[in-house]
Amino acid sequence: MPSLEEELFPSTPGKFKDRNRHFHRCFASTSTMFLWALFLIALTASYLCFQSFMDSGNRYFTSTWGGHHWERNVINSAQIRRSHGGMSVLVTGAAGFVGSHVSLALKKRGDGVVGIDNFNNYYDPSLKKARKNLLTQNSIFIVDGDINDSKLLVKLFDIARFTHVMHLAAQAGVRYAMENPGSYIHSNIAGLVSLLEVCKNSNPQPAIVWASSSSVYGLNEKVPFSESDRTDQPASLYAATKKAGEEITHTYNHIYGLSITGLRFFTVYGPWGRPDMAYFSFTRNILQGKPITVYRGKNRVDLARDFTYIDDVVKGCIGSLDTSGKSTGSGGKKRGPAPYRIFNLGNTSPVTVPMMVAMLEKHLKVKAKKNFVVMPGNGDVPFTHANISSARKEFGYKPTTDLQTGLKKFVKWYLSYYGYDQGKL
Ligand SMILES: *[C@@H]1O[C@H](CO)[C@@H](O)[C@H](O)[C@H]1NC(C)=O
Ligand SMILES: *[C@@H]1O[C@H](CO)[C@@H](O)[C@H](O)[C@H]1NC(C)=O
């Protein structure tokens, strides 16, 4: 039987010495080979480890949701902290103007609130971050995510039992639609449907209150605007997507028994407002000594808006949530008729844009440089005026802040937020 050595290194007769030397050399080179192999294996293994570390690292850093800590935050924030009639509300667009105010108001009375916001850069995201900080200080957790991310929504409904959804996330603005039409489809159509899909599948289904818009009245000329007036003549893509939202929510109410309340907001303004709105950008320009563009209708008719103060709108949102009634479906199936409601949330006293500017001048103690320009036919409507009798009847909606008072509060906030020395004004 050949020895192991012979088996590996077949003998060459008469060359024992050589063979022996050969053997040693070979042995040395095998062990080198072995070491090399070991080295390569180690290298591959560490490369694979590194790869998977990078993968999970990427997942961890690019997607901002998930994980034990994140789930605890969601659960805590969704917790109801009052004994009677408390609700647990998912607020979409919670870092937005109306969203942040509604979240704070709900939390204050002990309701559970979880926010979601994608912090897009349609306007200065630092303002959204600042609103988020305000909410965080009040123990409200905001998820950084998109409502068109179904996986995220499913996860949220998995870990928190939301009784209500306050859907305020949207792409706003009428003129921006000509620049970025896709954004309106993404948020106001695709995002809405993805949210409704998750709501209809969840058990129990939440009741949904969401932001439509007074812009759905479009070219309607009958004043004041009542909910039953025609809304089939939108003047902007924004208005069209909001109108589509009313129709889409209607089908989810009809087919799946979701309780739906649509709120047609009329030019909401106030502290922490949206920088893309006229009263806000006018304030900025007036303070910086820059001219402002004031649009006028045909025949020099001033535009007028039914400006509605944020606190009044918040009361309307909460009144809607409190009276929403239950969704009736379960397991994705309708079990009976559910409420479908639409309300105007306005102020019922339109003010012309030049009058609004005069109020700002008074509060800022600076004269505005006004450029009057004929309104281009690109989305704005000449006037808005709400009939709010439905909301008054249904949940006692009664706006109490006139534009003069509301703008005073806005200016006070603006000066403090942007660090103006209020003593000098
Ligand atoms: C919304 O999300 C779906 C997947 O859930 C995706 O297919 C679609 O492209 C998204 N829509 C928009 C407009 O971003
Ligand atoms: C306001 O709307 C109600 C229905 O909600 C209607 O009965 C009333 O006539 C409207 N008022 C005006 C002034 O149009």
Descriptive notes:
Belongs to the NAD(P)-dependent epimerase/dehydratase family. It comes from Solanum pennellii. InterPro entries: Epimerase_deHydtase, NAD(P)-bd_dom_sf. This is UDP-glucuronate 4-epimerase 1. The chain contains 13 helices and 13 strands. The chain has a domain at about 170-425: NAD(P)-binding Rossmann-like Domain (Rossmann fold). Helix 8 (about 235-255) links the parallel strand 5 and strand 6. The strands form four sheets. The chain has a seven-stranded parallel sheet with strand order 3-2-1-4-5-6-11, sandwiched between helices. Strands 7-10 form a two-stranded parallel sheet. Helix 4 (about 95-110) packs across helix 10 (about 310-320) and helix 6 (about 150-160) runs parallel beside helix 7. Mean pLDDT is about 90; it is low at about 1-20 and about 55-60. The protein has helices at about 5-10, 15-60, 70-80, 95-110, 125-135, 150-160, 180-200, 235-255, 280-285, 310-320, 355-365, 390-395, 405-415; strands at about 90, 110-115, 140-145, 165, 205-215, 260-265, 270, 290-295, 305, 310, 340-345, 350, 370-375. The protein has about 425 residues and is of the alpha/beta class. The N and C termini lie far apart (about 110 Å). The structure holds 2-acetamido-2-deoxy-beta-D-glucopyranose (2 copies). One 2-acetamido-2-deoxy-beta-D-glucopyranose binds near residues 148, 150, 185, 186 and 190. One 2-acetamido-2-deoxy-beta-D-glucopyranose binds near residues 150, 185, 186 and 190.
